[in-house]
Specification:
Mean pLDDT: 86
Low-confidence stretches: none
Largest sheet: 8 strands, mixed
Strand content: 35-45%
Number of helices: 3
Distance between the termini: 82 Å
Number of strands: 20
CATH class of one domain: Mainly Beta
Order of helices and strands: HEEEEEEHHEEEEEEEEEEEEEE
Radius of gyration: 43 Å
Oligomer: single chain
CATH topology of one domain: conserved putative lor/sdh protein from methanococcus maripaludis s2 fold
Length: 372
């Protein structure tokens, strides 16, 4: 029994020893093979750094508004007798839009106009008699008051009649009215929307640290979703004098010529304020930048000689992204003219990685996204 147990222990030790020895042999061969394998060269695409110009802009969003726009309403109540415009039509300044019934006011005006000559004649007669000391000063004052009150009543009636004729305060387009002939309306009723469309405006906000970069008269570009391929030109017309203390924002107003009347109020728009261009700047594709929580960097390519051969290796340099526009970015960093930097393929790179430059065969982005 003991002999059999000893034999089993010896066999077990031989088997485990063989397995361990084989694994050690395999691991050694793997290490030897890996040590003798040539270092892989990662494929990359590169671009050459060179100073260029950069057009800085300030981006904002806003809504198009008319430079002149008002909802026409009435000051006095009354019955609508005439509507002098068509929905959506063009009107001129002073053109009659709505008339309210004013028969009573016109009749009272005729009555007062008929009484005015007699009142004036009585005043003139009393004045003449007073100079001759034939009447008292009290009689003269009474005649004068009657005459002046008559004139004031006439002016008041004329003003009331004028207020019952609602006119366009400026040239523009009228919208769709909700009132009708024969309808009795109260003071302040919304009659129709009137907007001048030859010049539009837009209001938007910028941060207070951008305030020194803008000025009245500065040019800007406006883009709206209704006309995606067109850029509307405008200029800053006013800057709010105070910064809103709760947000640190400043309101800016710009005017936009709209001679072809394509812009309409309420359109959502993107605003780009054009700043003076910068020269001798480093501009790279955004795909070349490695964005991370620890800082942004790009890989530059260096040609090194190792074992008598020239190889390419990459090394990261820290960059500061100042501004981005489209696929390009304005950066600051330790770049020099003529330095090659990696534009794609940097996902598998690390400091000192061996690389090989391949042609850039990336497809251009389509101008219009395909429709499903």
């Amino acid at each position: 029994m003991k002999k059999w147990f000893v034999i089993m222990l010896i066999l077990t030790a031989v088997i485990f020893g063989s397995v361990i020895g084989f694994n050690v042999f395999v691991q050694g061969k793997i290490k030897q093979t890996l040590a003798n394998m040539p270092e892989p060269a990662m494929p990359i695409t590169v671009a050459t750094a060179k100073p260029t110009s950069w057009q800085p802009i300030i981006k904002a969003i806003g809504f198009i508004e008319p430079l002149q726009g008002v909802t026409v309403s009435n000051q006095l109540s009354g019955l609508i007798t005439h509507i002098k415009f068509n929905n959506g039509s063009r009107v001129k300044k002073g053109q009659v839009l709505i008339t309210l019934e004013n028969k009573i006011e016109r009749a009272n005006l005729k009555s007062k106009l008929a009484q005015l000559p007699a009142a004036k004649a009585d005043f003139d007669r009393q004045n003449k008699l007073y100079r001759n000391s034939s009447v008292s000063k009290q009689d003269l004052d009474k005649a004068k008051a009657t005459f002046l009150a008559m004139k004031a009543d006439i002016q008041a009636l004329r003003a009331t009649i004028a207020q019952k004729i609602i006119r366009a305060p400026f040239d523009g387009l009228v919208g769709i009215t909700d009132v009708h002939i024969g309808q009795f309306i109260q003071p302040g009723t919304d009659i129709v929307r009137l907007e001048g469309v030859k010049t539009m405006k837009i209001r938007f906000n910028i941060t207070q640290n951008q305030l020194p970069k803008i000025a009245v008269g500065q040019q800007l570009n406006i883009k709206v979703d209704a006309f995606p391929k067109r850029i509307f030109k405008g200029h800053i017309s006013a800057i709010e004098p105070a910064v809103f203390y709760q947000s640190g924002l400043v309101q800016v107003q710009a005017e936009i010529p709209n001679h072809d009347e394509q812009l309409r109020s309420g359109m959502f728009s993107n605003v780009e304020i054009i700043l003076p261009p910068l020269t001798n700047q480093w501009v790279v594709p955004q795909t070349a930048i490695n964005f991370s929580l620890y800082g942004n960097s790009i890989y530059i390519v260096k040609n090194l000689k190792e074992h008598g051969k020239e190889i390419k290796r990459v090394f990261p340099i820290t960059v500061n992204v100042i501004e981005r526009h489209g696929n390009l970015a304005l950066i600051e960093g330790d770049l020099t003219t003529g330095t090659d930097y990696v534009t794609s393929g940097q996902v598998r790179l690390s400091k000192g990685s061996k690389v090989k430059v391949t042609p850039d065969v990336a497809l251009d982005l389509p101008n219009k996204m395909p429709q499903l």
